[in-house]
Amino acid sequence: MRSPWLAVLVVMAAALVCLVPGLGAPLDDPGEGQNAEIARELLARGDPFALTLNGVAYVDKPPLVFALQALAFRVGGVNEISARAVSVGAGVLAVAATAWLGARLLGPAAGVLAGVALLTSPFFLVYARYVRPDALFVAALAWGFALTLVGLDTRRHALTAAGLVAFGVAGLAKDIAGVLAPPVTILVAFALQGRARAFARSLPWMAVAAALVLGTASWIGTELRTPGALWYTIADNKVRNMAGARLLPDEDVTLGALEFLVTALLGAFPWTVPAGVAAWSLLRDGRWRRAEELPWLALLVWTAGGLVISTLSAFRLPHYGLPMYPALAVLAARGATSLGRRAAFGAATLFLVAGVAAFLMWRGDGGAFAQLIGTTDGATRNVAALGGETLAPPWMRMQPLFGVAAVVFIASGGVALASASRGLSLGVVAALSMLALAPLTTRAASLMAEHRSAAPIARFVARHAAPADLLVHEGPIETSGSLEWYSGRRPVIVNGRRSVVAFGATRPEAAEIFWDAARLREAWTHERVWLVTTRPASHSVAASLAGARLVQRTGTRALYVSPAVTEVSR
Length: 570
Known about the structure:
- The protein has 570 residues and is mainly α.
- The protein has 24 helices and eight strands.
- The protein folds into three domains: 131-338, no CATH class; 340-450, no CATH class; 455-561.
- The chain has helices at residues 4-19, 32-45, 64-76, 80-106, 108-119, 122-127, 134-154, 157-173, 177-192, 196-202, 205-225, 229-242, 257-266, 272-284, 294-312, 325-337, 341-363, 367-376, 378-385, 395-422, 426-452, 455-464, 483-487, 517-524; strands spanning 52-53, 56-57, 470-474, 492-494, 514-515, 529-533, 549-554, 557-561.
């Protein structure tokens, strides 16, 4: 394998094999449902600078990913596969960028290893199939670093310019920090080598301007359509959020500093270990000072700096480590190709410990799994804060996956031991092991989506409710984001202003959508009302509604009807 592009093709094929199966699973709630519904409403309204969720102004994220999803709906129909197609495509592009950079820096074989390392990092594998802006954000960042670093290293200004524009796309995909933080990171790397002026001289300033325009234009367009959006997204949702002082918060519960760091590192298991080896070898003997090590120093600054800043922030979510994973994967490829014989025993120990842990979870009652989900899944943390249950499928459905994982890990540990005497590449062992586990990861994600989706209750409402009936959702609408998608009805929202549409809820046109409990009780006495809630019974408004009758419960979601609804059976 001689060409970097051959390495890219190999990992892209592997990515498609891992990412495409099972895309038709129901939309996960919370998470996927809200983003798919935003795109569906964009398809109907046609204004990318006036996004809505449940008809309420949504300004948390820029419009690129939703516009692409709306385009996918137009081409492939409004369905789950089309909704996830953008993330899958972005995931393939992120893996391709990682492989290309690894191949340029280390050779094609190591490029394949870098791409596979990113692909098989459990968190990336999940989010590359998930209806969120994160996969597109990561892909833009990965190509930005790949093109910029190679362009600077080879003095090919066209590549540098393309990389800077890719950072602009990252800003358009999710966060304005995507266009600002990466160039600053590269500047820091140059400055650490005493060459900050060389970086400034190497920049194609027209491309810098284009990236800034690309990364900020959508925020300005949204501000013009929805005054106050810029204050909310920058001041409240970014600056005040990092300080833990938001004025319009949603229900997200932050991870502790140590919880976040452990979660982020486990999300890239086992590739954090060889990445750490590469970082240590770069720092240990001062090699980072050499000009030829600039790309590696930039990758290290981005990975370590991003993790440190997120850890020190007052607000952290499990997926905040994702933007660092492509850089970590390239570092892991370097570390894996430099490991010696003694490292085989360390790798074997790592896999065997993972195998024993998976075996013990398989033999257990599901309590350890519930604790794992309670730490790594933001939605479960939110529900737990309100006294709810773990948002995970019944243990009997998840249990077999851990049994298979135990076998794979223990077998990998044995192969790693054999590599000490037979010269097998530890990188190849790890890559093959994690590729074997990829179907388990995607299957677990599908089971989670099936259990948490609002689809069963929404379809029940669609079948049984009369056209004039009132549909109500208790709590933030994002917890059942696909409710309108599957039911064809737009609910009113009770006690749901602490939400991703908290800013939209302050606008006059949202007044008839957001109700308080008193208004719901008034309607309850004389209208046919269907109430969907994810709240535990003891915390739900349903407990205060006279004659409330539970007619459906699926997963952690319940459906109550008012006394006027008499003909529905469970």
